[in-house]
Design a protein that fits this description.
The chain is built from 5 helices and 8 strands. It has 145 residues and is an alpha/beta fold. It is globular.
């Protein structure tokens, strides 16, 4: 896997060194000075079709029933599974550079830039959402409740 710093540079994204843990959408909005809608959550879902990286905006929750219509039974990955599948800890999973089938909610694409995990819990990534879609070859699908 490429390091997140290399990927960020390649995609014209910016890593924000926060210097303290940022684990919630509220903390990310405060530290990055953005609206909840501009913060994204990169969540690992275990489905019958295989693991997924699902990206939604900070105002939304993932709808497991919507995912299950397409991918079979689904559940949120446990912290250990997230680390094993992505190489990152929960709260630091970036939206790019993760070797999983990626699903992005269309609402994420309404923003010019989004703020997501930066590879560690004290870093954030500022990136254009279409770059996430391109890099991850993400599928666009309504997955929010």
């Amino acid at each position: 896997m490429k390091r997140i710093e290399e990927i960020a540079k390649e995609l014209g994204a910016e890593i924000l060194e926060i210097g303290k843990p940022v684990k919630t959408v509220e903390q990310a909005t405060r530290e990055a000075g953005v609206a909840r809608k501009q913060v994204i959550k990169s969540l690992v879902i275990i489905s019958e079709s295989g693991p997924l990286l699902v990206i939604v905006d900070g105002e939304s929750r993932v709808s497991l029933p919507k995912l299950e219509e397409r991918f079979g039974k689904c559940r949120f990955a446990k912290a250990k599974e997230v680390r094993e599948l992505t190489g990152y800890e929960v709260g630091g999973v970036p939206p790019v550079g993760v070797p999983l089938r990626t699903i992005i909610d269309p609402r994420v694409l309404e923003n010019e830039h989004v703020i997501g995990g930066g590879g560690a819990i004290d870093r954030l990534l500022r990136i254009r959402p279409e770059r996430i879609t391109e890099y991850q070859r993400a599928e666009i699908m309504d997955v929010r409740e």
